[in-house]
Amino acid sequence: MKKFFVTNLFFLLTLNILIKSFWILGIDRGVQNAVSAQDYGVYYALFNFTYLFNILLDFGIVNYNNRTIAQYSNLLKKYFARIVPLKIFLSIIYTLIVIVCGLFLGYDAWQTKMLFWMCLTQVLNSFIAYFRSNITGLMMFKTDSIISVLDRSLLILICSFMLWNPTLRAHFSIEYMVYIQFLTMFITFLVALIVCLRSTGFVKLKVNKAFDFMILRDGLPFAVLGLLMACYNRMDSVMLLSLVDDNGKSSGIYASGFRLVDSANMVSYLFSVILLPLFSKMIKENKSLNGVIGAAFHLLLILTLGFVSVSLLYSEELMMLLYDKHVEESASVYRLLSFCFIPISMTYIFGTLLTANGSLKYLNLVAGLGMLMNIGLNFVLIPLFQQDGAAITSLVVQTLTAILQAWLALKIFGIKFEWNYCLKILFYILVVGILSYTVFAFVNMDWIFKIIITLLLFVLAAFGLKIFSLKEIKSLLG
Fold first, then answer.
1. DSSP of 317-331, one letter per residue?
2. Nearest to residue 337, comparing CAs of 268, 243, 262, 405?
3. How many whole angstroms separate alpha carbon 470 and alpha carbon 463?
4. What's the whole-model pTM score?
5. Is 397 helix (H, G, I), strand (E, B) or coil?
6. CA–CA dist 75, 80 (Å, integer)
């Protein structure tokens, strides 16, 4: 299972790092530089606003279906025929509620039009997520990996043509971005649907009220969890737009600071894509989880420490490389948000483990606490510190919820770490801190080369302290 996990993870990471990193750091950044901070800030806030209601689209169906199909693949055709009509109904409800809530908040005609197209894009994205849950539930991880980057690949092609053509770039507006996202998501929707139909064969859609009730009832804990997590993960930019009267500027700066963190979070998220069905299958078969958890933890430990160290020491250089306006403010937000990568990554291991085990009651309690803390702290800190206040709130909430999830997972599964192991991890953290500062302060060369040297030293230190060993790598891949 460790070998299966690592080989599929490597393929998934390679594709997503190449495509999505280029999208986030190249094209999406290019879009933000091509338009004003205010326009991008409004777009970013509206996008997160539509995301807050995603639970109405999904209602926990994706996580529930992923876990169920991984354990009982023979149910795929039956569930597919009944879940698709249910999701169509939920999509209509979702779109109506988002538009009404937007009007209630005072969004103008242009914002409402953008909100509508973003809703349609989210509907397509929800169907793609459902189709992918079937694909990963059948352990077709390589196929899922290709689908996971298809929409971004198409976005890169279209937006590159528009942004790198001087004439088209001069007339580029954030509106074009919304329409292009819808188009590429629609194409990806069609491809994912075809892949699913190849596995299910011809499917006659059926509306079954008893089945729908069962799915909604069983998916309710997942739905509540999704809603609560969306609130404390996506509320910051929405509250910035509402609490700071600057036409979306603070939200745009927050988006600038969050972009690299979002790119890094993508890597951690991909761990959960493979871990959820894998954990579900292993729990059902009563197999030991220690090997897979250890491999995931060690890989993410190196990634998170490397990212945070580089972010703290080279934040201004990175922001100057990416943006041509509001660099200092973006760097300040980025330094704070970079720390969030550590708890978010741990959540993708231990939160996923609790989800696979069906421990939704505990997850919902933790997420509910996180949502209340997020809203409360944002109301206090955003008026005082604007985008920095939102970043501080995010760091506090993400850290506390991650600690609680890890503690619950370790307690439920009876996983214990020996003191020697804990001291070794702490010593490794101290070593990488010293290494990163030493290179930053005493090595006289370009900052990009300093980052490369620092990351190489982190990897060597991991092998030197036996966080990883050549023998373990061979056992995982051989």
1. HHHHHH-SSSHHHHH
2. 262
3. 8
4. 0.70
5. helix
6. 8
